[in-house]
Amino acid sequence: MSRILTEATLRQAIGRWLNEGVRVAGPVRLRGIVQYAYLDSPESLVLSGFIRPANSIKQFLLPRHESLFSYQTKGRRVELAPAAAPAGPQVILAARPCDAAALPVLDHVFGWDVADGPYFQRRQSTTVITLACQEHDEHCFCTSVGMGPDNQRGSDAMLLRVDDEHLEVRICTDKGREIPGRMDDHIGTRGRTRSAAGAEFFDRCRPAFPGRGIRTSVLEDGRTPVPGMRGLRPQLPDLPLLRYCRRGGARLRAARTELGFPAS
Amino acid sequence: MLGLLRQRCRQLLQDGTVQVVIGYGQTEPDTPVVPVFITDPNQADQLTWNDACHFNLVTYLNHAAIRALGRAAICVKACDERALVVLEQESQIRREDLYVIGIGCDGVDQPRSEKCRSCEERTPRFADERIGDTAGNHAEAAGRYQPLEAFLEKTPAERMRYWQEEFARCTRCYACRQVCPLCYCSTCIVDKNRPTRIDTSATLKGNFAWHITRAFHLAARCVGCDQCTRVCPAGIDLRLLHLSQARAADRHFAHTAGQSHESVPPVGSYSEKDREEFIK
Predict the structure, then answer these.
(1) Does this model's pTM top 0.80?
(2) How far is B216 from chain A, CA to nearest CA, in Å?
């Protein structure tokens, strides 16, 4: 399922979310540095002109510090009370796909044996909308770890730039499915098909991602967006966490499978 | 120039003058420039030189794994060379154990990085040999302390707010320490935990303690290679802290770190003539 919207309608939707009390986080330019932060107005969202923000989206799900509980002493008794529940719904908008891909990994870490309450409460009330990358620099390495500029791991919905004005919305999860509903007044042209928009997107960014091959999704009509990419297997990532997982037995192997890494 | 660099490194490895060449290289064409450690003369063609060679390779001299490779030849720019001088003054390296190839440099990055715009020294002065021409030393070099002076025009409250906002982003990854050629302590003060001297959690308080402590540990030692600012993933302009220390050393002790072997480092030396009227 995918739709096309204009950048202006996206900003209108942000304005509406902000009025409804939904916190919207995204890249903003603060003192010349692009950083993820909560938006105070739809105009402050920055969608282009940078490779990646200077911080990560983790802070919106796992703040560096938070109250976990409070206590009160009554005589010789200590009474514990859980802290107030984390604030309501939030949308992380225009996150980099690589940032979003870390979230399923975090989910496993915080749900390892005991599910971390505040983390999962925030996670459930957060919708992650990523923006596919069109540019990279020499420090980017997503294609070396089985990712790619439009990889949807961890995204509830993904925006792909079609042209200077239009963005394609791809829905990735049930949570993401609610998004167009919440933006329905604002959906613009629907004339373009997903495959046309997708192919155009990749035609544009293919020269920018040379070398190791892009792991791309398959279009609805079965074509791969980039000719010749069919059957390309991503390189198995060799990250410390995964090496650790490999040693960790069946449960962790299951975690790997669930994370979508091919069986080694 | 590149041909000469490769040829000289090949010779140095072949005749056994050195066992490893630490230089800038590309492992494959059209890949980013990375530090390379060449032990095989046949691989000397990996060496490269262009304006993407911004690393300060002096950092690697203190790595045990690099030291284990044997006598090293190291490629330095004029700015990196100052770190060699400080390490030598602090008895961290023995100059005779090292073969220094000085590379004439007209600046790194496009557009030129901040430090290059105020660079007054383009040709290494103490190298065993020099390779590459430069357009000559900057006559019209912008003042080194100019970014600091612009910053100091703000009120103290504004500066405090600036650092609070900047340090709030620091995640304490310690990349600034790891990349610094002069942060060579085998156990950094922040890693000492009996007792803990600096709060290691990434709180504003802990971050202030860390960055101010690091700046003071580099006072009159930092040579301004700007690697810490370059590697900071949070984009914190650490250069401003180090410039303020450098300017203090310059003003009060007429010392510029790494400028000459004769200038005595203010930290670690004592004279009854030391000025003290600025201590309040």
Answers:
(1) no
(2) 26
